[in-house]
Design a protein that fits this description.
Helix content of chain B: over 70%
Order of helices and strands of chain B: HHHHHHH
Order of helices and strands of chain A: EEHHEEH
Number of helices of chain A: 3
Distance between the termini of chain A: 26 Å
Radius of gyration of chain A: 13 Å
Number of helices of chain B: 7
Number of strands of chain B: 0
Distance between the termini of chain B: 95 Å
Number of strands of chain A: 4
Strand content of chain A: 5-15%
Oligomer: heterodimer
């Protein structure tokens, strides 16, 4: 599975990592919705670290689209929140 | 995507897909997306140039502030040596403000440097992908039937498209940050224009308002401790030093000078 960290690049992750990734992702969303910036930042950074640790950087000449695209590592709590109310990082 | 129901990533991905859908008509995928790729590459170059310009501007301002810190320090010493503690305090308060500003400029310049590096890396990555796309499309055209070629080229184009969208996002974020820095740099320039860091001796009466604001801005405990340190260095002591202290040190200099001459005379 290919995971992109926005503004950083793509990583190839094995199938065995999907569950861990999914868990952290859902936790990040939950903390975002419950309005806890500290919890969100901690979880989101753990999510980014997980991808960097478990994934292999995808070579530059690969033209595969990603299966999953994560927000940029420096995303703020406010930006992430706006993402779920329809606006945010990527317009439209 | 087996089992992955992560919602955050799904939101982001669906938004990027929407961007791509808007940009790509499968019939025109090839030339259109190649053109778009080249266009975005130019934009990235321009974005990097903007970041470099902002950085240079901040560096100039940094140098100016550095000079002013030195100048205000000298003035504080001179004022103290002349027994004018109030003037020395004012100079130190301004120095304190300038130093705080200097620290934040340092941080900003560091951030811009990081952004410049990131964007340069993104540009290279995008260039590699575009190059790959160009050779891939020729191979696909030669090896597959028209219908199949269309599918494969679409796949490759959406891979490049995703990279483009991502570089576009990185650039937007870098420019937003640069805008914020510009706003702050402008605020500092206004302070400068208002005479905040100017030569104290050129300040006329009626500058009390600036002084009041400065006192609020600068940390008084830092100014106090620096003033005390300066006094100790100058040997003016504490309490009622003032003009008496200045007079005494001037006298000491004269004595030293007088003492120096005979010894020189003996040596020659």
């Amino acid at each position: 599975m290919i995971v992109r960290i926005s503004t950083e690049g793509q990583y190839e992750l094995g199938d065995s990592d999907v569950e861990g990734l999914n868990e952290l992702d859902n936790k990040a969303v939950a903390s975002c919705e419950s309005g806890d910036p500290e919890e969100f930042n901690a979880t989101f950074q753990a999510l980014i670290a997980f991808v960097r640790e478990h994934g292999q950087p995808v070579p530059e000449e690969t033209l595969e689209p990603s299966d999953v695209i994560l927000p940029p590592p420096d995303v703020s709590f406010e930006e992430a929140r706006a993402e779920f109310s329809g606006e945010g990082l990527i317009p439209g | 995507m087996p089992g992955l129901s992560g919602r955050m990533s799904v939101v982001i991905k669906s938004k990027i897909s929407k961007l791509l859908d808007r940009a790509e008509d499968p019939a025109e995928t090839l030339e259109y997306s190649y053109q778009k790729q080249i266009e975005l590459l130019q934009n990235v170059k321009k974005g990097i140039a903007d970041v470099v310009t902002s950085k240079k501007r901040l560096q100039l301002q940094e140098q100016k502030l550095r000079d002013q810190v030195v100048k205000l320090d000298t003035q504080a010493r001179q004022a103290l040596a002349a027994g004018n503690e109030d003037l020395a305090r004012t100079a130190l308060e301004r120095k304190n403000v300038a130093q705080t500003e200097l620290q934040s400029l340092d941080t900003q310049i560091g951030q811009l440097e990081q952004q410049q590096e990131q964007l340069t890396a993104s540009e290279q990555k995008l260039r590699a992908k575009i190059e790959q796309f160009r050779s891939r499309k020729e191979v696909i055209k030669a090896q597959y039937s028209a219908a199949e070629a269309q599918v494969r080229i679409s796949e490759a184009a959406s891979g490049v498209g995703e990279e483009m969208a991502d570089v576009g996002l990185a650039m937007q974020r870098a420019l937003d940050k640069t805008e914020n820095m510009k706003a702050r740099a402008d605020a500092v320039q206004e302070l400068e224009a208002a005479g905040t860091f100017d030569d104290l001796t050129q300040l006329g009466p009626g500058e009390d308002d600036i002084d009041r604001q400065l006192r609020q801005l600068s940390s008084s405990s830092e100014v106090d401790s620096e003033l005390a340190k300066m006094k100790a260095e100058l040997g003016t002591g504490s309490g009622a030093a003032g003009e008496l202290g200045a007079g005494a040190s001037a006298g000491a200099e004269q004595e030293a000078g007088a003492g120096g001459q005979p010894s020189q005379g003996q040596a020659s």
